[in-house]
Amino acid sequence: MSDGLPPSNLFYQTRLRRPQLARGAGVYLWDSAGKRYLDGSSGAMVSNIGHSNPAVLAAMRRQMELSTFGYRLHFENEPAEKLATRIAGRMPEGLDRVFFVSGGSEAVESCLKLARQYAIARGQAQRWKVISRFPSYHGSTLGALGVTGMSLMSAPFAPMLRESPKIPAPTCYLDRDALTLEQRGLRYARMLREEILAQGPETVLAFIMEPVGGASTGALVAPDSYYAEIRAICDEFGILLICDEVMSGAGRTGRYLASEHWNLRPDIVALSKGFGAGYAPLGAMVADGRIAEAVIDNGGFIHGHTYAGNPLACAAGLAVLEEIDRLDLITAAEQQGQALKARLEATMERFPFIGDVRGKGLLLAFELVAERATMEPLPVGLNAHLRLVDIAYDAGLIIYSRRTRGGRIGDHFLVCPPLIVSDDQI
Ligand code: PLP
């Protein structure tokens, strides 16, 4: 190609050229020139159990010898059944129906569609609005993008999108008022109530949020008060709570689901990333049995993808979950997360341009600012979110960066190594 980029390269942001991946093992990746990188972000917060895990590779090989595809409307398959049982066994009481897909956006689309079909099944067809937060990220397909709060990603598609009503994400750390953090948490949660009333409660179907923020907000955690208040408001108006745990699930925050930190019980959950852990494209929607049953009784779920419940992907997912338990990686995420967070916080003393360090478990982030006292973001033109990543690349470290234009959050960097990361590697 004339610009020297491989034909497979079509980045949305810039003409980035990255090294060619040769192989991976544990927390490390090597490029085709032999250079080693510590995968400090598990790719896009995916490779939770590290690369080339022998038990997962063996399980995939075994399944490959048996079957790699059976269409879901023709056959059930054992890996999918076992994986669904295993996932359901770790969900809050009653969330026992698992619907497989191949990624996070598909999982979110499934949640939105199931919620809508549930409203119809209950005779509430006037409910269709899904409230979400700004900033937020729920995926890049048109439905998931409609609930995503990232203007840069949705702007070109505005005429094709049904933009959901948005309330501000609980960026309490940026507020300069006399309130305590817990009071701020309540204030942000009550914005949901105001939005429901403004929209007309009888038209609102669901509220979707990331319990711990991901790429859009850089591991944003709300004060404890926020979560119980959100649940209470959803219950007050009969609105479904969808937790997007695509990034925060599968143990990354030190709990199986991040919502467990607050005993928050979602009605529907979206999962992906850490469940396939980079071994296979895999995602799932897990729904409350009463929601699934109502939809099934009303004619069935009108949704699905060809590769859903793929036996090879499910065999990989099952082996990943077995490894997470065998290696006690959820405990590791909590413990190593505390150690890594303490090290990141210690850098704040040396570097006044680090404005905030946040997150839970090994879903951690730091934010760069012009001035910590005011939390004024760095100028956009500086492109710090790209430049620091390049500096890290040169040093053999991969981190994940974003700048949420239009929001109050500036350049932020996710530091999310695989949950197998050792003390030395931290
Ligand atoms: N939801 C969340 C919270 C995510 O972080 C992502 C991806 O980053 C998605 C949904 C979309 O997942 P995918 O890229 O697999 O479609």
TrEMBL record:
PROSITE patterns in alphabetical order: AA_TRANSFER_CLASS_3 (PS00600)
Similarity-based family: Belongs to the class-III pyridoxal-phosphate-dependent aminotransferase family.
SUPFAM superfamilies to which the protein is assigned, alphabetical: PLP-dependent transferases (SSF53383)
Annotated GO MF terms: pyridoxal phosphate binding; transaminase activity
Pfam families: Aminotran_3
UniProt name for this protein: Adenosylmethionine-8-amino-7-oxononanoate aminotransferase
Swiss-Prot/TrEMBL cofactor(s): pyridoxal 5'-phosphate
Gene Ontology BP term (one): L-arginine biosynthetic process
Keyword list, A-Z: Amino-acid biosynthesis, Aminotransferase, Arginine biosynthesis, Pyridoxal phosphate, Transferase
